[in-house]
Amino acid sequence: MSKTRFIKVAAIITIIAAGLGTGAFFLQRSYQYNYADIRSVAVNGDAKQLEAVIKHGADVNATDEDGRPVLFWAMRKPGNKDNILILINNGADVNFLYNQVSPLTMALTNLTDKEVFEALLAHGSDVNYYGVDGNTPLMLASAYQSDPEVVKLLLAHGAKIDAINDEGQTALMFAVVSNPNPQVLKALLDGGASVNLEDERGNTAFILASLKLKDSRFLDLLTLYGADIYHKNRDGKDALALVKEVSQQIENAKEATAGN
After folding, report:
1. Yes or no: is domain 123-260 CATH 1.25.40.20?
2. pLDDT at residue number 2
């Protein structure tokens, strides 16, 4: 095991006894802190315990054998905001990569705590990192975050609003395909998103919204901000033609099911 995995320290771990109100007791011992120790506290301990082990030398950037740091595991646990913030504020690397996933892209996919996003950005997390499939943090926020303020936060920190991924898709397209809240779409449009960009198949956000059979609020917003409703993709089909195809496929499927 590398020297960075183990740090010899004299530790005082503060343990707050459950149900004792202001009662507490202290356990004092000397041993080697390793990755498993701080990971366990970061995931299962409370904020005071995590602060104590960090104060006494635990490495917030220690990694396991697969290169996953403590912050990675802390962010996988729902409701772990306080410990995540402690790690970030004590120097956890906010730009580590594991399988092309950064802390910011991981947070935007799995968490809803705006404070975590703010802390990551304040400590220098790359707001324009191109991750898996070339997806950026703004694309992921547009797909997974229901709060439009998250989109505005990323834009305020310099997110490229018209960045494209490996399939030519933009954040605007992610919003119309995957996000049920039209206010997220509006935040992108208000932020200056180009409404008529095409993906590699020639589909625009308006076509994609039509294909998803989104409610009229999405289509109304796109139209209000200048969407070309007659645009044809590379198959020569516009939104209306594609919707007719999808509707016919649905009817055919219903008939086939009824026949069985």
Report:
1. yes
2. 42
